[in-house]
Structure formats: C-alpha cells, structure tokens
Write a structure and sequence with these properties.
This protein has one domain. By secondary structure, it is mostly helical. The two termini are 30 Å apart.
Length: 242
C-alpha cells in the first residue's frame, strides 16, 4: 500500500511541477527581458541590472510563488481530490513540487546570468553581478541559491495557507489566515533583514538578522511550522463538488 501511495505522490508532484513550471517560464522570460533591456532605461531598472540575475529574479519569484500557492489551495487540491487523490498524497506531492519549482526558478537565474554575461561580451548589453542587500557580497552562489529557494517556498506556503483558510472556513474565520500569512512572511524577512519591517511593520525595531546560520535554521523551522499548519488544515477539509 505504501508503494502505491509513493507512486501517487510522485505522480502528483510531477504533474504539479510540470504545470507550475509552464507558468514560471513566463515569469523567467519577462524578468530576463527586463534584465537584458534595463541598460537602455533609467531609474529602477538600472539598479535591477546591477545585481546577479538570480538575485534580480528572486523578488518577483516570491510574488509568483505566493500566487501559485493560492491557486494550489483553491483550485488544484480540490481538483486532484475529486480525481481520487487523498489529501495526504496531494499535500506531500504539492510540497515536493513547491521546493522543486522554487529551486528550478533559481537555477534558471544562475544559468541565464551566465548566458547574459556571454551576451555582454559581444553586444552593447550590460549586466552586473551584485548581491541582494541582505546577504554578504562574498557569500557563495550555491548558498544564495539555497536561501532564495527556501524563502520562496515560505511565500508559496503563505499563499496556500490563505487559500485553504478561505476554502475551509469561509469569510470571517478565513480572514484570520491573512494576518497569519503576513506574520510568517514578515518574520522570515526580519531574520534575513530584507527591509519589510520598514514599510509594513515600521514600528518594529527588533533586528533578528546578522547571523547566517541562525537565519537559515529559523527559516527551516518557519517552513516546518507553516507547512505543518497547512497539513492540519487540509487533512479533513470538505471538498466542494462542482
């Protein structure tokens, strides 16, 4: 029986990964186009191209992951459950797909930066290799890949949390998942000191950042708690047949 469940989980993971990567290709393509053409514009795009492309892709990737997390909870889980997939098998498959999508997006960021640097040698295009503000410049590229992948997975989880909250509890109780999702996103950003405490919770002066190991472990724990809550909420949710 366990082998059957494992096969189903793999199938769910592969299907979700394939579907969500088809959407991700559009994100990657648009961001890369802006990155390539940024040297011809002034303002924000000029700062955008000073970064390594993976670092530039990271911010829009978080928003993308949040949105597809919502889609997963509202549309994809009910669809798969109606097709006979158990809630547990969907959760496991979807969670694996989440980390794969997040990681592959960042991998494309690394690969396309190499392509871009090659283009700058033979065209008027320009590109930088800078690092996002909240990470040290000397941090190994592989560690940045891992960190970006984990943070993006947090954003997917918060989108999924809001979706399943409204799907399961309707309006009033479901609305409680919005501040919960904001909390998970903000506390993650605070640990990496990427500035959300300035524009979202500007009265918070606590600084949890400064130690990469602490921030890394904290992010893993946040992911564990967040996805544990999602598993609890999805374990027995009633599926609406349409």
């Amino acid at each position: 029986m366990s082998s059957v469940n494992t096969a189903i989980q793999k199938k769910v993971g592969v299907d979700l990964f394939s579907m969500q990567m088809r959407w991700a290709y559009w994100l990657i393509g648009v961001v890369w186009f802006l990155y390539l053409t940024g040297s011809f514009f002034s303002g924000t795009l000029q700062d955008f191209i000073l970064l390594h492309f993976m670092d530039s892709l990271f911010q829009p990737a978080k928003i993308f992951m949040f949105v597809i997390g919502i889609i997963s909870g509202v549309y994809l889980m009910p669809l798969f459950v109606q097709l006979g997939v158990t809630r547990r098998n969907y959760f496991i498959g979807a969670t694996v797909a989440t980390f794969l999508v997040s990681g592959v997006i960042m991998l494309f960021g690394m690969l396309l930066h190499t392509v871009t640097m090659g283009l700058t040698a033979v065209t008027p295009l320009t590109a930088g290799g800078g690092v996002v503000d909240f990470l040290p410049d000397e941090l190994f590229l592989g560690w940045r890949f891992v960190i970006f992948t984990l943070i993006a997975a947090v954003y997917y989880g918060t989108g999924w949390l809001i979706a399943i909250g409204f799907y399961r509890f309707k309006t009033w109780v479901g609305m409680l998942t919005i501040p919960a999702a904001i909390f998970f996103n903000v506390i993650t950003e605070l640990f990496w000191d990427s500035g959300l405490n300035i524009w979202l919770f500007f009265w918070i002066e606590a600084d949890f950042s400064g130690s990469l190991p602490v921030s890394f472990v904290a992010t893993v724990l946040i992911l564990g708690v967040l996805y544990g809550i999602i598993r609890k909420l999805t374990a027995d949710v009633a599926i609406k047949v349409k």
